[in-house]
Design goal:
This protein is α/β, with parallel strands linked by helices and 385 residues long. It contains 13 helices and 14 strands. The protein is globular, with a radius of gyration of 20 Å. 52% of the residues are buried.
């Protein structure tokens, strides 16, 4: 095959994993919650086989046009970094550290000394609520708003009119250098905002400073074979830029879809790895069931154009990286199976069942491209005509 387009619908889980209770996620089902909305419409995903996946709660088509299945997670986690890394071949046996009571005072003091700015908040918080509650104090004092969540993240919020975006990125880079070893969080995230109280809004200048992947990934294997690795959305950030030959930053799902459609017209040989983050960031974490449903419907409406753009030697894979059930009582990620939908002119409709690990996706991507990779089990030979 010449090109593989791998699209991650960020947080689009399809049902709780058997160990979900260990993560406080018993009964979680992102698709189940979203499908109940009157705004949910996904005829094209259903046509690919979404409703035929084990445990699916949506309509099952009698004649799917794609291969379909679901993947379990082997890693000890349920966040973006862990999920994408596992897709790419890294099983995280230990969870990244989390800070339900905020970060240790000695670490915050070191950060303050290196940045020359005080820190306020330092506790788990909703990203939209934290700027409402601390935005004025930040503007008045110049202190940085540092907060976390149930995920392994160190987030820094600041107003773009008072702390430039480049300055905020520099502070995040300082934090990234500090947060190693026992405090090696998965991501340091810049969260700039604008506006006047109480109408502060976050901007599209978010930037994630991730840990370097801890092992060889499918990106390393593909780039090492002198093929292209093109990233769309926050893929570049998740892999700290490693082995990515070309990247495109996006500001929304719509922008990500538009970028994908333009790249379908590009002549390249390798992988185009796409993350559509709004499902998670804008809707899942805000428990917005209807908004999530509308976003799925928007993607589904764009899907025929994506399919039409595929060449004879192309493969499209649609999946997720974890769940974020908007109908759940919390606003956190949820530990769920992820969907696996595969389409191409040479792909036969096939029930792949339940795969043991997300890493089987990365193994298959490499196999499609003829690249050696020693992690996961490829399903290529099960689905190619």
């Amino acid at each position: 095959m010449k090109r593989v387009f791998l699209i991650v619908l960020d947080s689009f889980g399809i049902g709780a994993l058997p160990d979900a209770h260990l993560f406080g996620d018993s009964g979680a089902n992102t698709l189940g919650s979203v499908a109940k909305s009157p705004f949910f419409s996904a005829p094209n995903l259903i046509k690919l086989g979404l409703g035929l996946i084990n445990g699916s709660c949506v309509e099952a088509t009698p004649s799917p046009i794609g291969a379909y299945g679901r993947c379990a997670e082997k890693s000890m986690g349920k966040d973006t970094t862990v999920g994408h890394w596992e897709i790419s071949g890294i099983i995280s046996k230990k969870p990244f550290p989390t800070y339900p009571n905020g970060f240790p005072s000695d670490l915050i003091e070191k950060f303050e000394a290196l940045t020359g700015r005080k820190v306020i908040c330092n506790k788990p918080y909703s990203g939209t609520k934290v700027i409402l509650d601390y935005g004025r104090e930040h503007i008045e004092t110049g202190a940085l708003i540092v907060y976390t969540s149930a995920d392994s993240v160190f987030q820094i919020a600041s107003h773009e009119d008072y702390v430039s975006v480049s300055e905020l990125y520099r502070y995040c880079a300082i934090a990234r250098e500090l947060l190693v070893g026992e405090h090696g969080v998965g991501r340091v995230i810049a969260r700039p905002f604008v506006g006047e109280y109480p109408n502060f809004t976050r901007t599209a200048n978010r930037h994630d400073f991730s840990l370097e992947p801890t092992g060889k990934t499918m990106l390393d294997a593909i780039q090492g074979a002198s093929l292209d690795v093109i990233s769309v959305g926050k893929i570049y950030d998740i892999f700290a830029g490693r082995s990515i030959t070309e990247s495109y930053k996006t500001t929304s799902n719509e922008h990500g879809i538009e970028t994908t459609l333009s790249l379908l017209e590009k002549d390249f040989h390798g992988l185009c790895f796409i993350n559509l983050v709004d499902f998670d960031m804008v809707y899942g974490h805000r428990n917005d069931v209807d908004g999530y449903a509308k976003a799925i419907s928007h993607f589904d409406n764009a899907l025929p154009k994506i399919l039409e753009g595929l060449g004879d030697d192309d493969v499209l894979i649609i999946t997720a990286d974890h769940g974020c059930d908007p109908g759940d009582i919390s606003t956190d990620h949820t530990r769920e199976y992820i969907p696996l939908l595969v389409y191409g002119n040479k792909v036969a409709p096939t029930n792949l069942g339940t795969l043991d690990t997300y890493a089987d996706i990365g193994a298959s991507v490499c196999d499609f491209l003829g690249v050696d990779f020693g992690f996961g089990k490829s399903f290529k030979n099960k689905i190619l005509r």
